[in-house]
């Protein structure tokens, strides 16, 4: 099934510069709320660092944490002579028109590096924000976890309240070096009029671990992405966890790809998708080219109302001895489960929303408590809509 | 507490219950025996109100109210509780959370209740996810303790349970049926508290070691027959099997024909 295209000529990729924001808590109430739902704490409590990019400019960048480097990508390119080891190494600038647009016209993005052996306890937060009609945004992010380092990044992408006709093109490249561990949590809070084309790829060295969490609970007009992780080092482990909700009007085409290119590697892709009227294409691909290698892919979809879910799981092995499995299901809530809860005194609506909340469980992501609460609050708000 | 009048129930096009009459008084425990496929579980499911069980004739009264066509949750809120034999797994829903929901507005100490059935380690686990036979039963008991129904329906409480767990489950079933009396109370008080009724399906009769069963009957091919003391029924069935019931029913029928002829 082919990917949908976005007509980039409809958006303006110039002239939407924004002023620096010294203190994120000075943002107005509407913006703060949009950010909160994208996982961003404007008070930066219990955060190792904060970064914000608005429209075409980096507007905020602050960190005092030792062992953590956080700067605008433009600054990093200057400081490190163009970052030859990292910049455009995992994503090909000529891959498609979106990567070309981002290559030709770089607005900014974040450069985050955890230095060798550094354990960054509190998450680093980054926000990519669009405010204004017709704005097209190009960002390029580079994340590096050096040998033995550990870091959690929470990145929230959002449009301001009332923003019409926006587009976001984002390149992200991840490098997790020997024994490093990265947890990368991305929360999308786009508008029902936003087109989104992230292009992400990463590589893991020996014994590296990358856990990639993705949460999309709000409407988005048209989103397509297929991040790929290459497990190049022996003993490396990658996991994708996704929770995706598509209300009416949303078109979401997402997938996760893991390439097991070294022995003793493990990959896991777990996606929970729910449509209450929108379209979700849920792809997944695990390729195993060395042994021993193990991979498991799980995509489960719930249809409530008139939505569409198209699950396309793919497993590919090229050597004797790979162990790959997948589990896919698309359907409605089991009547048996509803009746079980009704026998305990819950009415049908209560039973349904209890099961849906369980289905969209973000427990396994290991999010900070207050973020998990914010996500759960949003899931609870789904209950109030007519679809449930 | 419960009165069933001339109940006929179909699953799809097949009539499974063919005219059931049964009365269970407050505080009384009734045991239902019968071979596989006789309709025992159908009776329980119908009383609870499951969607696939269609009442084509007759009436179910609970606490004097006609609940024949009431939705499940209304029956549960009126005071009917059920211990499932094979409950579904609900992913992402913690057992502890479900127990709390069973209590509805009432405050319950979930941890404390869970300790009583040795289940406190399972409260953070997803409901029924990977539970063994005994664990399922303990989870069901725990939910019922929080729910505190006035009529408890037990669907084969001993199935899939090892002997050690059987004692715990049997004792808990008894507590549920006896009500939970304070530490010191007279026999009279205890009897007065004992308002919970029970309807238990059993194959093996192990549960009889633990609960005070007042009456029992055999279900055979959608009919109830042979009312007797539960122990006597069990002894009889273990000696002669359920074929005996068939003969008994046949002779009843021929008796009816003779009466008609007269």
Ends distance of chain B = 38 Å
The CATH H-level homologous superfamily of chain B: P-loop containing nucleotide triphosphate hydrolases
Give the number of helices of chain A: 6
Can you tell me the CATH architecture of chain B? 3-Layer(aba) Sandwich
User: Biggest sheet of chain B, in brief?
Assistant: 6 strands, mixed
Shape of chain B: globular
Residues in helices of chain A, as a percent range: 10-25%
Low-confidence spans of chain A: pLDDT under 50, at least 5 residues? none
Oligomeric assembly: heterodimer
Per the CATH scheme, the topology name of chain B is Rossmann fold
Order of strands across the main sheet of chain A: 2-1-5-7-9-11-14-16-18-20
Number of domains of chain A: 2
How many separate helices of chain B? 9
Pfam family, one (chain A): SUFBD_core
InterPro entries (chain A): Fe-S_cluster_assembly_SufBD, SUF_FeS_clus_asmbl_SufBD_core, SUF_FeS_clus_asmbl_SufBD_sf
Family (chain A): Belongs to the iron-sulfur cluster assembly SufBD family.
Organism (chain A): Nitratidesulfovibrio oxamicus
Structural write-up:
The complex is a heterodimer of chains A (388) and B (262). Chain A has 388 residues and is α/β, with parallel strands linked by helices. Chain A is built from six helices and 20 strands. Chain A has two domains: 10-333, no CATH class; 334-388, no CATH class. In chain A, the strands form two sheets. A ten-stranded mixed beta sheet of chain A has the order 2-1-5-7-9-11-14-16-18-20, with no helix packed on it. In chain A, strands 3, 4, 6, 8, 10, 12, 13, 15, 17 and 19 form a ten-stranded mixed beta sheet that branches. The model of chain A has no long low-confidence stretch (mean pLDDT 93). By secondary structure, chain B is an alpha/beta fold. Chain B has a single domain (2-94, 149-163, 185-261), classed as P-loop containing nucleotide triphosphate hydrolases (Rossmann fold, 3-Layer(aba) Sandwich), CATH 3.40.50. Chain B has nine helices and twelve strands. The interface between A and B is medium-sized, with 23 and 25 residues. Chain A: This is SufD family Fe-S cluster assembly protein. Chain A: Belongs to the iron-sulfur cluster assembly SufBD family. Chain A: Residues 131-359 form the SUF system FeS cluster assembly SufBD core domain.
């Amino acid at each position: 099934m082919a990917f949908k295209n976005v007509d980039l000529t409809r958006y303006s990729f110039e002239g939407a510069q924004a002023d620096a924001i010294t203190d994120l808590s000075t943002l107005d109430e509407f913006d703060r709320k949009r950010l909160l739902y994208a996982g961003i704490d404007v008070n930066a409590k219990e955060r190792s660092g904060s970064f914000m990019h608005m429209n075409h400019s980096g507007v905020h960048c602050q960190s005092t944490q030792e062992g953590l480097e956080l700067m605008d990508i433009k600054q990093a390119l200057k400081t490190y002579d163009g970052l030859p080891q990292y910049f455009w190494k995992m994503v090909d600038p000529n891959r498609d028109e979106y990567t070309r647009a981002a290559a030709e016209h770089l607005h900014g993005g974040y450069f985050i590096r955890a230095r060798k052996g550094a354990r960054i306890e509190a998450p680093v937060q980054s926000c990519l924000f669009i405010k204004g009609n017709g704005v097209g945004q190009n960002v390029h992010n580079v994340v590096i976890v050096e040998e033995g380092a550990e870091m959690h990044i929470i990145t929230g992408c959002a449009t301001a309240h009332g923003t019409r006709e926006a587009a976001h093109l984002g390149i992200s490249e991840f490098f997790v070096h020997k024994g490093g561990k990265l947890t990368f949590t991305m929360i999308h809070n786009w508008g029902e009029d936003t087109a989104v084309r992230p292009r992400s790829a990463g590589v893991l060295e020996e014994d590296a671990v990358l856990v990639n969490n993705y949460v999309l609970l709000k409407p988005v007009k048209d989103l397509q992405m297929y991040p790929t992780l290459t497990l190049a080092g022996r003993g490396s482990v990658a996991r994708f966890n996704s929770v995706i909700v598509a209300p009416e009007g949303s078109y979401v085409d997402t997938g996760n790809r893991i390439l097991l290119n070294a022995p003793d590697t493990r990959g896991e892709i777990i996606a929970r998708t729910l449509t209450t009227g929108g379209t979700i294409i849920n792809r997944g691909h695990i390729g195993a080219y060395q042994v021993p290698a193990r991979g498991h892919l799980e995509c489960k979809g719930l249809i409530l109302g008139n939505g569409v879910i198209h699950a396309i799981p793919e497993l590919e092995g090229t050597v004797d001895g790979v162990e790959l499995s997948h589990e896919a299901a698309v359907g409605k809530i089991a009547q048996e489960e509803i009746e079980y809860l009704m026998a305990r005194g819950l009415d049908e609506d209560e039973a349904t929303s209890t099961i849906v909340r369980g289905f969209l469980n973000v427990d396994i992501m290991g999010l900070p408590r207050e973020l998990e609460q914010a996500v759960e609050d949003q899931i609870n708000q789904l209950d109030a809509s007519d679809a449930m | 507490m419960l009165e069933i009048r001339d109940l006929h129930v179909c699953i799809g096009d097949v009539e499974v219950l063919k005219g059931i009459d049964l009365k269970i008084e407050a505080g009384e425990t009734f045991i239902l025996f019968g071979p596989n496929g006789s309709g025992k579980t159908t009776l329980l499911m119908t009383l609870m109100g499951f969607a696939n069980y269609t009442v084509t004739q007759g009436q179910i009264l609970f606490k004097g109210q006609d609940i024949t066509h009431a939705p499940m949750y209304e029956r549960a809120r009126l005071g009917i509780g059920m211990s499932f034999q094979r409950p579904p797994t609900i992913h992402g829903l913690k057992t502890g959370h479900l127990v709390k929901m069973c209590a509805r507005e009432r405050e319950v100490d979930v941890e404390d209740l869970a300790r009583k059935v040795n289940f406190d380690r399972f409260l953070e686990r997803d409901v029924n996810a990977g539970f063994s036979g005994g664990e399922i039963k303990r989870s069901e008991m725990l939910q019922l303790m929080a729910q505190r129904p006035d009529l408890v329906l037990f669907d084969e409480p001993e199935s899939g349970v090892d002997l050690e767990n059987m004692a715990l489950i049997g004792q808990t079933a008894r507590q549920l049926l006896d009500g939970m009396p304070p530490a010191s109370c007279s026999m009279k008080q205890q009897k007065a508290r004992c308002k919970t009724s029970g309807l238990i399906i059993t194959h093996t009769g192990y549960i009889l070691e633990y609960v005070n069963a007042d009456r029992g009957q055999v279900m055979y091919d959608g009919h109830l027959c042979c009312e007797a003391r539960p122990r006597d029924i069990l002894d009889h069935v273990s000696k002669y099997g359920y074929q005996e019931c068939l003969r008994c029913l046949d002779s009843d029928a021929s008796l009816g024909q003779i009466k008609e002829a007269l």
